[in-house]
Amino acid sequence: MIAPPVHRGMVELERSAFRKVINTLAVKVPVKQVGLAKKSFAEVMMDQPRLRNIEPDPSSKETKLVLLNLDFQKAEDLPKEKLELLKQYEWDLVQHDVELNYDFWTAEQIFHAVMPEDSTDIPASFTQVGHIAHMNLREHYYPWKRLIGQVILDKNKKITTVVNKTNNIDTTFRFFKMEILAGKDDMIAQVKESGCKFKFDFSKVYWNSRLHTEHDRLVQLFKPKEYVCDVFAGVGPFALPAAKKGSIVYANDLNPSSYEYMKENIAANKITSGIFPYNMDGRAFIRQAVKDLQATSANEWKTFDHFVMNLPATAIEFLDVFRGLYYDQKDLFNANPRAKLPMIHCHCFTKSTDALQDISERVGQIMGSKPDPSKSSVHWVRNVAPKKDMYCISFPLSSDIAFATIPVSNNSSEKRKLQDTEPSPRKVPKSPRTE
């Protein structure tokens, strides 16, 4: 592999410093004999990524140059049978210079050339969100952050803004604080996913393109006419595709920016019915949504088929709201032989080697009893850090929990009590009636 010139310690990008001239042997052949030459010298031809092994001959338009592997620096290095072929066809062996510049090298090669030789985690990867490259640089690479941003910008033509996360996720409104490393100060991203278009301010809302597969997986579980309650909906990556396929979705996010962009995305995707956006605290929303949906049915049991709780850092803590959630609707449930309770899909993190046991125990501590293992499943979503994985546990809400009369007091911390009473933007649509 050809490497670029080394410039350890460069922190301001100098593109001209990465010019390099490679000298190689080449077989000079008539244009009409290029195919024959390629076949005859196939095993000794240049085989370098992104480099052509057939070049124009600068001395004549009648001939081409077949470049040989860099292992061969002089005629004597060639196998005897190749030298005999040169004589047989009267082809000349010449020296040829290949000039490489900054445009030739990959971002990773540039970073290897400027960073300490013992660097093992070269930061060449990023997450793309529309026109934005989102990086998560380790602190020891901060001296090179502007250079890194510019190189990423140069090497990816669809990227016009490069940003770096500067802290952990905001626990209230679920977004990262970021700094722009290179490119335009334009944080309004537009993304296509699951057949829907999404627009949002990436600096004010949470979006993770790596969750595309998980969004699709759950949406495929929802059937047309089923009722879905999306508790932490963000700008709508679960809610909009589900509504488009015919599910009836109540979607909520506490972040006012997420709520506003979700409404904008609903309109942009021409979804005119079957989706109801809210802007509330998660627990308050669950209670309100259950009441609103039940209000659409006169005297018959009606509730959600699915609750989606995609807030992996803290979603499990919100499960206490389900204890006694349907206590005042028990008679309606018992009066309907076809009545059923919802499935809960709750995302979370775990470092345990036994994910099912760890997550089930944590769910049980919050709700008062563990989910039925014969009806529960734990789906691995992705690895987020060394020895830290994201999972989704899916389980049916049990009647013991749904109709319980006493909350689990030892699991309801003062912090969570305050969270329910804390002032926050609350925008609740009128009780919707289904068509």
Verbal overview:
Residues 126-399 form the SAM-dependent methyltransferase TRM5/TYW2-type domain. One of its GO terms (biological process) is mitochondrial tRNA methylation. Residues 413-425 have a biased composition (Basic and acidic residues). The protein is built from 12 helices and 17 strands. With 435 residues, it is of the alpha/beta class. It has 3 domains: 20-100, Alpha-Beta Plaits (2-Layer Sandwich), CATH 3.30.70; 107-186, GMP Synthetase, Chain A, domain 3 (2-Layer Sandwich); 209-421, 3-Layer(aba) Sandwich (Rossmann fold), CATH 3.40.50. It has a 7-stranded mixed sheet with strand order 13-12-11-14-15-17-16, with helices on both faces. Strands 2-3-1-4 form a 4-stranded antiparallel sheet, with helices on one face. Strands 5-6-7-8 form a 4-stranded mixed sheet, with helices on one face. The chain is elongated. The termini are far apart. Mean pLDDT is 90; it is low at 409-426 and 431-435.
